[in-house]
Amino acid sequence: MSTNVLRTPDGWWAVRDERAVHVDTEAVTTAELLADRAAVREAAASGEAGTPVADLVALPPVTTPCRVVAQMVNYRSHAKDSGFTGDIPPTFFRKASGSVSGPHDTIVRPAHVKFLDYEVELGLVMGASLPVGTVVEEQDLPRYVAGLVLTNDVSARDVQLTKTQFYESKSYPTFTPTGPYLTLLEPEDFAHLLNLRLRLNVNDAPRQDRTLADMIVRPAQALTLLARFQTLDPGDLLLTGTPGGTALKAPPKPVAKISALLPPAVRWKAFFKGQAKNPLYLRDGDLITATIATPDGRIDLGEQRNAVADAR
Q1: Which residues form the Fumarylacetoacetase-like C-terminal domain (predicted)?
Q2: Is the residue at 155 inside a domain?
Q3: How confident is the model over 217-231, as a mean pLDDT?
Q4: What would the mean pLDDT of 242-266 be, rounded to a whole number?
Q5: Residue 264's pLDDT is what?
């Protein structure tokens, strides 16, 4: 069975139901903790009463600096929302690790960003080096992936679209809420990944709700494609895409065809004028809640609760 690990200012904790036992380790980084899994197992099996999880302040369980890589348009429902048809080439982009924030931290919208969007995503945390040229089969996943985290790939859509710039639009501080748990997997847990269900609500209104069965490029294939050009090391993070339901959606095809005939400046002005009427974009005071878990609770990455605030 998987083991949930929490990171706080006082170190690492193995979580059992609503209580947590302190892990006796000198590990400071996620990579160091993964090298000391025996200490995690010992804490998880301990007979100590532990501390209520509710009394602990959760930090992101993925420590930085690290590599943060993400997959673009990797769920069929998201591809449909985005107006894609036919085969979609697998695409990766990088996020600054400075964007990683805690599972309950406030998401801060920069003053120049008008269209702030959410993307609940499953994060894979590497447990072993993935050299360039590695081919990963399904049965190899336990060798390379140590665990999972819940993430939110927050996106400044006006920056992303006008500049075709993913790195900037997704890398502002607080734009990658991560955690609360680092869920360490046992080899037998990997057979249950497709049952994981991703959910995200804004102000209690459901926005995203899909399982990994909707995923286009699954983890083993994604790691193989990424390893064509990118090395990953223990503690690095791969975000595996988001399902449909984001605020941004492609315009209807007739509108898109007409817009394509317009000069770029006129086209973007018209597009964002329409987006300004979209009530789904994040606003000051919104509350985002997100979860990823299997229906039977075998794997449960916990819950994120992030308020949204305008930069001041």
Answers
A1: 68-308
A2: yes
A3: 97
A4: 65
A5: 61
